[in-house]
Amino acid sequence: MIKLVVTDVDGTLLDENSQLPDLNKEAVYECLSRGIRVILATGKSIFAIKYLIETLQLKLPQITLNGAVVVDSSYNILKAVRIGSKYFYDIIKTIKDKNYKPLAALANGLIYYDEYDPNFRVFEEVHEPLYKVEKLEKNEYANECVSVSVAIKETDPLDSFLRKKYEQKLQVVRSGEYFFDILRKEANKGDALSYICNKLDISKKEVAVIGDSPNDLSMFKFAGLRIAVKNSFPEVLKTADYITDENYKCGFAKAVYQYILKT
């Protein structure tokens, strides 16, 4: 029996305009009414999903910033995996030396940049607040950073360059067309989910995960039931137990009613 539903946000729970469809909202409420708990697991900061948590009346810890930070129902940090100042300065320098503009996400959820990139519009489109600072290379950012991001497509040569340089030491993940993040290997949605389940005394077989992107695969490895929306990356579709409709066709709600609430 499923006791916990964990869902990705953009590309899964939300539609193509980053809005919450009424049917998806009703599906969450139906889960809660039957005693099935719900957690959001997102690459976004807590500030970008507060409205969802409040709208959906969620009371459990939530997974943010690709699993690097877990927050409780009062938005206090329960767990944070910081990237470390040594890696921080090296990654920032590497990205800037290639003439790209990095972003630094801190454990408190604030995301900073020191030079604007037009591609940062993708963060604005999903309601992710960004803050300009004079210079990223400061210890106050280095010591609290959980991930460094750059807004590039998978076909951009910087993608393969950064993967080759860092993926043996760190985790390199893509959660969308322009969302490319570098984190510690321990900072992933799957480990964050395991941490929460241990606190709640919920077993793997009692967990259903719904997602669409490579950063959801660590949760798929953990969960007892794995569901992908039809618009998912190919590697996610291959791993799923079931494939539901696209996010913009309320695939989340259809999956909940067909595979989770069917009994």
Q: What is the structure about, briefly put?
A:
This protein has 263 residues and is α/β, with parallel strands linked by helices.
Overview of the molecule:
The protein is α/β, with parallel strands linked by helices and 263 residues long. It has two domains: 4-78 and 188-260, Rossmann fold; 85-183, 2-Layer Sandwich (Hypothetical Protein, Haloacid Dehalogenase-like Hydrolase, Chain: A, domain 2), CATH 3.30.1240.10. The chain is built from eleven helices and 14 strands. It has a six-stranded mixed β-sheet, covered by helices on one side. The protein has a five-stranded parallel β-sheet with strand order 2-1-12-13-14. Helix 2 packs parallel to helix 11. The longest helix is centred in the middle third of the chain and has 13 residues, at 85-97.
Name the poorly predicted regions. Answer: none
Order of neighbouring strands in the sheet with most strands: 8-7-6-9-11-10
> What's the CATH H-level homologous superfamily of the largest domain?
HAD superfamily/HAD-like
Total discrete domains: 2
Number of strands: 14
User: Which class best fits the helix and strand makeup?
Assistant: alpha/beta
Largest β sheet strand count, sense and barrel closure: 6 strands, mixed
Helix content: 25-40%
Mean pLDDT: 96
Which percent band covers the strand fraction? Answer: 15-25%
First-to-last CA distance: 9 Å
How many helices does DSSP assign?
11
Q: What is the element string, with H for helices and E for strands? A: EHHEHEEEHEEHEHEHEEHEHEHEH
**Which CATH class of the largest domain applies here?**
Alpha Beta
Query: What Rg do the Cα atoms give?
Result: 18 Å
